[in-house]
Design brief:
This protein is mainly α. It is built from five helices and no strands. Helices cover 57% and strands 0% of the residues.
Length: 118
């Protein structure tokens, strides 16, 4: 759960690098919260209200951790825009996010696995 909170603490920090575990754990927790909110929305009859509010609340942190993940693979954050290409863009972006980060320091900062977490 600390991976999720760490990303929220870096709410709008687009600089630096995020390793795979940070990105994917944030994505997993966010997905689970979205499912729970969808169930609660359905039970309350408020349909997409809670889910939409949550999605809006985590939009900026999601973009920021996505950019930092791209930085870890030595790519610019502008690669996020490739997702605008239907189907192929999302697949390419998913491959970038899933690929291993560079083990050396790059233009975006030091290797996040070598930097102490706290």
């Amino acid at each position: 759960m600390h991976w999720y909170v760490d990303v929220l603490k870096k709410y709008a920090m687009f600089s630096g690098r995020a390793h795979r575990q940070e990105f994917w754990m944030f994505t997993l927790v966010s997905f689970v919260i979205s499912i729970v909110l969808a169930v609660v929305d359905a039970a309350l009859g408020t349909s997409p209200v809670l889910g939409a509010l949550y999605s809006l609340a985590v939009l900026l942190p999601s973009l920021a951790v996505g950019v930092r993940r791209l930085h870890d693979t030595d790519r610019t954050g502008w690669w996020l825009l490739i997702a605008l290409i239907p189907i192929v863009g999302a697949i390419v972006l998913l491959v970038f996010w899933a690929s291993a980060g560079k083990m050396h320091d790059n233009a975006y900062g030091p290797n996040p696995q070598e930097v102490p977490a706290h």
